Amino acid sequence: MELEPWLHASQGVWRVIDVEDWAEIRRLHRAEGLGIKAIARRLGKARNTVRDALRGDEPPRYERASKGSAVDSVEPQVREWLREFPEMPATVIAERIGWERGITILRDRVAELRPLFVPPDPCQRTSYRPGELAQWDLWQPDVLIPLGFGQSDKCWVVVGVCGFSRLIGAWMVPTRAGHDVLSGMLQVLGQFGAVPRTAVWDQEGCIGQWRQGRPRLSGEFQAFRGTLGMGVTLCGPADPEAKGLVERANGYFETSFLPGRSFDDVADFNRQLVGWLRRANQRIHGTTRLRPAEAIFEDRGAMMSFPPVLPDPSWRFSTRLARDHYVRVDTNDYSVNPRYVGRRVEVRVTLDEVVVCCEATEVARHRRYLAKHQSLLAPEHSRVLRTMRAEAVVTEAFHAAVEERDLTDYDRALGVA
Fold first, then answer.
1. What does the pLDDT look like over 239-267, one tens digit per residue?
2. 16 with 130, same domain?
3. What's the CA gap between 302 and 132, in Å, rounded?
4. pLDDT tens across 283-309, in order?
5. How many domains does the structure of the chain reveal?
6. pTM for this model (two decimals)
7. Where are the alpha helices (DSSP H) in 284-378?
8. 184-219 burial, b for 16+ CB within 10 Å, e for fewer?
9. Residue 273 to residue 269: CA distance in whole angstroms
C-alpha cells in the first residue's frame, strides 16, 4: 500500500509522517494507553512527531507548495484598475497592464478579484428570508392637505414594505425633517409589530448620503437605529432597482388609494390610510401568492423585538423665555406660562404636540399646528397674564399709598447735626 507523507512544522523543523504511522500512534495512545516516550521508542519516531500526530484530529494530507502563477506579479496593477473602474473588462485590463500571455488565466483572476470591488447588492434579490429587511421611502401624494387657518399644502408619507411578507405600512408626516421622518418610521414599525433586521433606504438628507464612495448616515438616524439595534443599507446613486418593493407600493397608493378621496387634515389622511391598508394587506400578493396580513406572522417571528425603551426622535431644543412668553417652532409662536419669563425652558416637538418644560415642570402643551406664521395663545396662559397684570396694578397702588418721611427727621431723632 502506498503511504501518503505528511509535513509537520514545529519550531522551524519539518517532520514527515504517513497515514499508517499516524493511525498507529493514535491507536497505541488511545487503545493501549502508552505515553509519548513509549510510542516514540516502539515506532522509532521523534517525540515531537508523536506529539504532532496526537494533537491533530484529522488524517495527514500532503500539500504541495504552490509554484504561483504568472498573474501574481501583475495582480497589484489589476487591483488598482479594478479599484478605480470596477466594471472594466479583462481584455481592457490586459491592454492597460501590457499583458502578453494567454488571456484565460488573466480573465480568471479578474473574475476572482472583481467581487472585492463590486460586492453583490443584497437589496436586489427577488426572495427574502423572514425578518431580513424592510424597504423604506418617502412618498408625496399629489393632493393638498388642509392645514388650518385657510392654508393647505402637500405633505409626505413614510412608506415601509417588509421584504418577506410584503406587508405595507405608511404614515403621513408634515415635513421631511429628521424628527418627523423618524417619528413616522416608528409609527410604521408599530404597524409591523416588530423590528426588521435591516432597513433599506434611499439617499434622504435626514437618513444619509454617499460621500467619497462611502455611505454617511445622519446622527439622528444613527441614534434611532442604534436604539432599535437595526442595520441599514443605503442605496447607491442611480440604483432604483434596489428598493423596487417600496417603489411599487408607492404606485399602488397612486392608483388604488388616492383616487376619489378627500381629506380634512393630516390626522384624517392617516385614519383613511390605515383603514385602507388593513384591506390592502389582505389581498393575495401576485409574487408570493400569500396574504401579507397572514405572512407577517412568520416574518415577525424572525424580526427583532422592540427594546424596553423606544427611541425618541422628537425635536428638542433649549431657549430662554422672552418677555412676550412665546417660543417659536418652525414659523409658529406658541405661548408659555408668563410666570416663567426670563428662565431657560426645554422645548419638545413631536408629530402632534409642542411641549415646554422648565426644570422638569411642564409650563406649556399645545397641539402642533402645521399652518405657517401663526401665534397660538393658550386660554390658561391668557388667564395667568391677566392675573399678573392685576397683581402689578395692586402693587403699584400699594407703593403709592405709603408715606415717605424726610431723612432729616431721622437725623434729628438720633442727634445728628
1. 666 788 999 999 999 999 999 899 999 99
2. no
3. 8
4. 999 888 999 999 999 999 999 999 999
5. 4
6. 0.66
7. 292-302
8. bbbbbbebbebbbbbbbbbebebbbeeeeeebebbe
9. 6
